[in-house]
Amino acid sequence: MLTTTQAPFIEDAQRRGELFIHQPYELYSAENHEAWRRSYARMLPRWHRFANPAFLKGIDSLCLNHEAVPRLEEVNRFLNPLTGFQARPVSGYIPAFLFFDCLRNRTFPTTITIRDSRNLDYLPEPDIFHDVAGHVPMHTDRAFAETLVRFGECAHTAAELVSGIRDEHEQLQRLTSIIRAMARFFWFTVEFGLMRSKEGLRVYGSGLLSSFGEIEHSLESPDVQRYPIQLEWAINQSFEIDHYQPLLFIVDSFDHLFSLVDTLEKWMREGKLNHVAPGEPGVNELDLKSFLHAHAAI
Prior knowledge:
The protein is of the alpha/beta class. It has helices at residues 8-15, 30-50, 53-62, 72-83, 96-104, 128-135, 142-163, 168-191, 206-209, 212-220, 231-234, 254-270, 285-292, 294-297; strands spanning 86-90, 107-111, 194-195, 202-203, 225-228, 247-251. It is globular.
């Protein structure tokens, strides 16, 4: 069994300190496969109604199994020739710099556990449906894939900039602010972004694309504020993860998104990310250490 929060294989890997692992496909139970089948079946009509065209094309390109948890090696067989990206199984949380560096190297850290089939809407942490059915189809689009790579490069810029600061307090303060700005940008774009299309607003954010309730809520609820993205707003806007998002940002295209990442790095070099507004998300010690140790290892 590889159910989220109930997976001895994952617990053993974490105890051994193994971050990158293999996908032990034989451990998926009938209930695990049923959770995938039901999640996919109920999302499919919502994708056709609310998802952006690049996502829909990506779903077709990947030839995902509708009936059972996909094998990542099969996913990569279709994905890699399109953009060079691959899904790589991990045992859990990835420190921030390592996660961004994976994107830079066209690798997407992928959870292998899956949500409980008895409660498909409750997700205590990302699972394989969120990662493979929510994120990976977007990785088949060349423009979006290049944006992820560019975003990963920003982490190297951040590590380089803070490495030259001798005062430890100032170094940690600046780094905390930069990581928070990057996390907010990622949240409001890659995870919860909306995009204009000829048919109107469509979803490209993976947090929305993997949520049965929120994908419709994001586009049709009067309770959601939807604004054209302003970079200075997004990097200073806190968010909470345990409820539907009340504020979403709109980009015009993936080229627009790429240009925003360019601007983000430019602002980082100019010091404009050194003092973003406090608040969520928090930045933990592992994230800080991952950046502080990165420059020496690059």
